C-alpha cells in the first residue's frame, strides 16, 4: 500500500474503531460463523488475521487454534482487537502492526491466514495474495470474506458491458461513502487471482447481507451532502445498480439495502 493509501486507511478507520467494534455487521454477521465452519481449523494451528479491524475474525477463530495474531495497520483498531480478546478471555490472541501487502512475518509460519471485510481496501490484491502464500506453510489454508461486485448471477438480464459498468458504479458508490475503499471485484476475479497464485479452492459460498442505510453512513462519519448523494444513488441511480443493491424501506420508512459477501477457503498447493 502506498504511503498515501496507508495514511488514508489509518485516518478513516482510526477514528471509526469504536464504531466498528460494536457494528453488528462486523461483530456478528452470517459470514463470521460460516467462514470458521468452512475453514475447519485445527487445534494445533498457528493463525494470522490480516486487517483484523476490531478483531472479530481473530476472536471467532481463536477457540479453534493454538494461537492467532490479529494484525492491522491502525493502532486504534489493534487496541479494540486486544480489548475484545481480553473481554472474551482469549489468551491465545496477540496483536501486531502489519500491512497486508508487506506482512512482517517469516515464510511458511502459519497454518491459517484469514481476512474478513477488509481486502477491498487493499491497493494490490495480487501482492496481498502473494504475501498470504508466502507466510503460509505448505498445504496451509486461506479463508477470505469480502464484499464483491455484481456478476451475471446478480444481473442475469444484463450484457457483459452493462455488468462491468455496474461493477464500476458499485465501487464508486462505496468510495463515495469511504474514500479509502479500493476495489471490490466480482467473484470470478478472486477465483482467478487465487488459482493463478497456486491456491486450490476448497470451498466457496456467497450470500446477501442486509444493511440499514443510517448505520452504514454513520459508522463512516459521512458528511450530510455525501449522505444525500448516497441516498439518491440508492433510490434513483442506475437501474442495474439498484437491482444489485436492492434498496427498500421498512415499515418505519428507514432505508435498507444489500451487499454481496463472498466466502472462499483455499489451500496453498506445492
UniProtKB/TrEMBL annotation:
Q: Name one Pfam family in it.
A: Methyltransf_11
Identify the residues that the record assigns to the Methyltransferase type domain, covering every copy: 48-143
Protein known as: Methyltransferase type 11
Does this entry carry the keyword Transcription?
no
Q: Which family does it belong to?
A: Belongs to the methyltransferase superfamily.
Write the record's keywords in alphabetical order, separated by commas.
Methyltransferase, Transferase
* GO MF annotation list: S-adenosylmethionine-dependent methyltransferase activity
Q: Which CDD domains has this protein been placed in?
A: AdoMet_MTases (cd02440)
Amino acid at each position: 500500500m502506498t504511503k498515501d493509501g496507508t495514511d488514508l486507511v489509518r485516518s478513516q478507520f482510526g477514528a471509526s474503531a469504536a464504531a466498528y467494534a460494536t457494528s453488528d455487521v462486523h461483530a456478528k454477521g452470517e459470514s463470521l460463523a460460516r467462514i470458521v465452519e468452512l475453514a475447519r481449523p485445527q487445534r494445533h494451528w498457528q493463525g494470522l488475521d490480516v486487517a483484523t479491524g476490531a478483531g472479530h475474525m481473530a476472536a471467532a477463530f481463536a477457540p479453534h487454534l493454538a494461537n492467532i495474531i490479529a494484525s492491522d495497520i491502525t493502532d486504534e483498531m489493534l487496541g479494540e482487537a486486544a480489548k475484545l480478546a481480553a473481554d472474551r478471555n482469549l489468551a491465545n490472541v496477540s496483536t501486531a502492526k502489519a500491512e497486508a501487502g508487506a506482512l512482517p512475518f517469516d515464510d511458511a509460519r502459519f497454518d491459517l491466514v484469514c481476512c474478513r471485510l477488509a481486502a477491498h481496501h487493499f491497493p494490490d490484491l495480487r501482492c496481498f495474495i502473494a504475501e498470504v502464500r508466502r507466510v503460509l506453510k505448505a498445504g496451509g489454508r486461506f479463508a477470505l470474506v469480502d464484499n464483491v461486485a455484481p456478476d451475471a448471477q446478480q444481473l442475469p438480464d444484463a450484457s457483459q458491458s452493462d455488468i462491468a459498468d455496474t461493477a464500476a458504479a458499485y465501487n464508486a458508490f462505496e468510495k463515495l461513502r469511504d474514500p479509502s475503499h479500493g476495489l471490490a471485484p466480482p467473484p470470478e476475479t478472486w477465483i482467478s487471482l487465487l488459482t493463478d497464485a497456486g491456491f486450490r479452492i476448497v470451498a466457496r459460498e456467497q450470500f446477501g447481507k442486509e444493511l440499514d442505510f443510517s448505520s452504514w453512513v454513520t459508522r463512516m462519519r459521512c458528511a450530510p451532502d455525501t449522505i444525500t448523494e448516497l441516498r439518491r444513488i440508492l433510490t434513483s441511480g442506475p437501474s442495474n445498480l439498484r437491482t444489485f443493491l436492492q434498496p427498500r424501506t421498512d415499515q418505519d420508512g428507514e432505508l435498507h439495502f444489500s451487499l454481496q459477501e463472498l466466502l472462499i477457503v483455499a489451500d496453498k498447493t506445492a
